[in-house]
Structures are given as structure tokens and as C-alpha cells.
Amino acid sequence: MRIQAPRPVSRGLSLALLVVVSATVQLAVTRASSEVTSPEAAAVQSASGSLGTITIAVDATEAPRKILHARLSIPASPGPLTLMYPKWIPGEHGPTGPITDLAGLKFSAAGKPIAWRRDDVEMYAFHIDVPAGASAIDVSLDFLLPASVSGFSSAASTTARLAVLSWNQVLLYPRGWGSDQLTYAASLRLPDGWKYGTALPVTEERGGAIKFKAVSLTTLIDSPVIAGSRFRSIKLTEGEGPSFEIDLVSDSAEALMMSADDIAHYKRLVKETDALFGARHYQHYHFLYTLSDYTAHFGLEHHESSDDRVHERTLLDPSLRKYHAGLLPHEFVHSWNGKYRRPAGLATPDYEQPMKGELLWVYEGLTEYLGDILTPRSGLWSPEEYRDNLARIAAYLDRYPGRTWRPLQDTTVAAQLLYSASSAGASSRRGVDFYDEGELIWLEADVIIRQKTNGARSLDDFCRRFHGGQSTPPMVKPYTFDDVVNTLNDVAPYDWRGFLTTRLNSTEPHAPMGGINGAGWKLVYTDVQGDYLSAYEQVKKTADFSFSLGVLVVEDGTIVDVVPGTTAAQAGLGPGMKITAVNSRRYSLTILREAVRAAKTSKAPIELQAENAEVSSSYKLDYHDGERFPHLERDSSKPDLLGKIIEELIH
Ligand SMILES: [Zn+2]
């Protein structure tokens, strides 16, 4: 999963929340039972034999008016039966199944209604009694599609012209069965004239309905469908071998016009991942690319596809293009790191067992590192754009004091809380820092391997050992902390256990800079914002004064967060306040920027007028260091390993 905006805007602000999650969605896993080693897996796979095929027919013809209808037939025997609505959604790392939007739920057998009762404790469980003589239960339900763009797959997924279908939102499954043990035969009806893309194999299209091959519940939930009246499919490979394509839907035809250069970059991405991992664990791959300003913005990974949602004009607007460039590489990497190799605590056998996030610094952190280096390796970012993004994340991790009380390890354990945490107070609380700080740690590991082996080996060798091997269809190979340490030691002997344990448990005030510094670069601050940071702020509609005054501000003057210990905090400013005037002039972002620059050559404080709900007060900021934007600067006393790391593997 990928949250494209690591520090979303405070809830309650009238601002579109841009959440691009490098989401991890668990896909169709044909999981060999011998490979499931977690205790939860062993406990749940108690049901034996075969239940018979469950059928599900989804009617999405009313998706534009925000409702889906589904009918299921579930083989059953007389007696008590508990049916579950999926709760823990793979890749979202939390209990995010949208249970409150499940409506119209009715059960029957042979046409006769059956009463149901929700479990008193487990809100996702429904208890019924299957009547004597019945061999199946019929279920009908509706899903109320949300309009809010805040959140992940359970947030806005449809417009008048497109829809993203996540199967977990429209089905139930019998409790006690592992998701690999259940077989679902699905069909789907779309609005007239809509086309679609999905990794799920299709058996036939007839009478306006698409029929899919019967697959395990794991595979079904791992195989979303995008559909729309504006649809395009771009093939990234030809001839023999696995096929790769980008399926695009948007609210306008113009938004689907991917440039020839970008098509070439994505073709290169496929080749670069091949060179990096040396094997594939899928049979084909579909990037399901939704371009709309009216859906949530994030990415959610699957084994054979990814659900990637960005702004409508991402392919046309240079700022949006830069901002979202790393999304598809991140989600693609997840097919190896997250879907195939998965932390034991996240390799759960169904959607009811809680997930344990302690290894998310590998699942998401390594994916963030690899996705971000594949972006320049594929040509989707220039080396400078890559470095400016790295500088941005290093700078905020280094600046925010939340790290002095909450070790990185706790951000992984508490991931299910932090994904939805407000960005007000984020500098004190920390967020899902295992993405960005994980990236710094894996960069450092890469640099250490390169140094210890005089450049003969790198983290690429770790990836080939850990994620490569023989190519396979989708499957899950769980791992533990020890497996990570042992593979690193195979690549280059070192105290990896000590290195990782120290990084994960640190409450030092500064971010780990060993990777950047060891790679021949330094984090510096200048008064030049640069194209990348400028694009980043334009897309987020915020201005980041975190490294100068100590505030993150929405364009309209609303303060998202104030960094403790900075001039802004000392002056009494806090999250949620709204700046209305700067040095007696009505506030605008331009005027605030000019005031910060002018204060550099003045002794007078910057005077802000700000509203705290209904009370307006004056705040004096005695700040004279000008604007400060993070960048990386070359340290010529060391070799440029960073340049080497982002070089393409295939020349
Ligand atoms: Zn991710």
C-alpha cells in the first residue's frame, strides 16, 4: 500500500485528503499449506474437505449512483452457521473492511427468509440457523459506495464514468474456512458500454454479464476490477512470457493520453524488476490505473495487479506526474515484497485473524526503498528528483521530535492506528514512518553491503536471494526477522541483527543519516525550493515551513501542524488555527513567504494574526533565518554511491 501523502491534512479541514497508499492488498494466493507457518494459520485451517463452489453475482450497473448489489449462494448444511464480512484487508494492514456500508443484508433458503443476528462482540460476524433440508443459503446484500475521498479501498471508488470494484466489499464467507480453501465463481454486470481491466481470468461474456473463472477466495479478493466508459489498455510486453499491461480508466478521454516516453519508462520498469529480482511470482500483471479527482488517491498491491488511484490529470500535468511517479514502481515491487514474501504476522489465513505489523519496516520500508530507486532506474524520475524526495523525507524525520518517545518499531506495531491518525500533531505523534525511515535504513544497508564487498555486491543481491529463486505462480512465502538477518549475512557478513535492532528501537533525536552520508551526500538546507518540492506542495495544496518557522500550512492559512521547539511553537501557534494576516496585511501564501524572506535582513519579528476558532490573536515570531528547503549536496570526499544505486541495471 502507498500513502502518497505521508502527512495527510488534519481531519475536519475542508481540504481534499490525498492519500496514496502504497497499499498492500493480498491477492490471489495459491498458498501451499506447508508454507504457512504462523500459529494463526494453523489454528484456523480447521475445516477440512471442500465446501463446494460459492457463486457471487455483482450488479454494478448502479455504481454511478453509489450502490452495488450482490447475490451469493453458499453451500451449507442444516444447523448454526456464522458468515463473516472481510475485516482485515490485505495490504491495508488494519481492520478496515467497510462494515458500516454493508446494507440490505438478507438470507434465505429455497426462497424462505432466514432471520439473522450480528455477533455481540465481533461486528463482522452474522449468525443464522440453516433450516432442515437446505443445502445452500442465498444471500443478497448492497454496498453503499462512499463519496469521501479520505481513506483507502473503502473510500470513494466510483464516479459517473468509472468504478473500482474490490470484491471484499460485496461478499460474505463461512467462518472457520481459510480463504485458500473456499472457491468462488463470480460474475459481474457493468453499466452499458463500459470496458474493464482485471487480472482475474474471464471465461465468457454473455448477455451483458462477465463470467470469471472460479478461483479461491484469496485470489478473488486479490483481483479487483476497474471499469469505465473511458478506458484504455497499454501493453508493456509482446510475444512470449508473462504479459504486462496498464489498464486505465478516467473521467475524461484526454486524461488517458500517456506519453510515448512514459510508456517506454513503464516498459523499462518491467525489465528493471526482472533484472533486480531474477524471478517472478505471478503469471501476468495488470496495473489498474484510475485517474480521477473524485476517488481516493492511494495504491493497493496484489499479486498479479495493483489498484493505483491518482488525480485525473496525472499524465498531463508535470507537477502531478512528478508527485505520483513512484506509485506504480512501489506497488509493482509489492508483488515480490509483501505478496510473495510476507511477514509471518501478516500472512493470515482469512480476513478475521488480526494482522501483526512488526515487520512492516520490511514490507513497506524495503518496498519504498526499491520503488524509489526503480523510479529513476526506469526514467520516471530524474536523479535530481529522486534526491530531492530523499532529502524531503530525511529532513522531516530529522526535524520531528515524535521519534524521541516512539521508536520506529512502535510505528509498525501500531500501524493499524497510525494510518488513520490526524496530521494535526503528527510531528509529536509520528505517523507510518516505517515507509520513509525504512527507506533510510535500507539505503544504509545497501551502502554497508557495497562498502564491505568493495562494490562487488549490493542490496540487489539480497533481493535476488530473498525474493527471486524459481519463478512461480502467486504464492505466499512467510518470513521472520531472523530470515531477513540471515539473508543479509549471506550477502555480506556483518552485525545485521545489531544494526537493525538499534535502528528499530532508537529514540535518538536525529534520523539515521548513515545511508545518505555513506553514499557520498549530505542533507543541507537552502532558500531554493526546486521543482520537485514545489510540485509536491502544489499537489498537496500545502506549504511546508517545518524547517524554518516550524509550521505546515494549508494554502488558505489553516495550520496543519506546529513542530514542537520551533519559533512557531514558542510563539503559541497550534494545529487548527488559521492565519488571517501577516505583518498587518491580509494573509496569502505569497505574502507569508515574502515575510519570511524579508525577516532575514530585519530585526523585527514576523507578526501573524491567527484565529483559534472564534478568538483572533496576534503572534510574534522572532525568526530570521529565511526560507529553508531540504536538498542533498554532494560530498566529494566520498564516492557517489547514490548515483550508482539509481543507475539502471540493464544498459
Ligand atoms: Zn506499500
The proportion of residues forming helix, as a percent range, comes to 25-40%
> Residue-averaged pLDDT, rounded?
93
Query: What low-confidence regions span 5 or more consecutive residues with pLDDT below 50?
Result: 6-46
Strand coverage percent: 25-35%
Distance between the termini: 30 Å
**Heteromolecules bound:** zinc ion
Give structural notes:
There is one protein chain. With 651 residues, the protein is of the alpha+beta class. It has 20 helices and 33 strands. Strands 2, 3, 5, 6, 9, 12, 14, 15 and 16 form a nine-stranded mixed sheet that branches. Strands 1-21-22-20-19-18 form a six-stranded mixed sheet, covered by helices on one side. It has a four-stranded antiparallel sheet with strand order 7-8-4-11, with no helix packed on it. Strand 21 (298-301) and strand 22 (305-310) form a beta hairpin. Helix 5 packs across helix 7 (365-377), helix 8 (383-399) packs across helix 17 (530-540) and helix 13 crosses helix 14 (481-491). It is globular. Mean pLDDT is 93; it is low at 6-46. Zinc ion (ZN) binds at residues 1-2, 22-24, 301, 330, 334, 364, 367. Zinc ion binds next to strand 1 and helix 5.
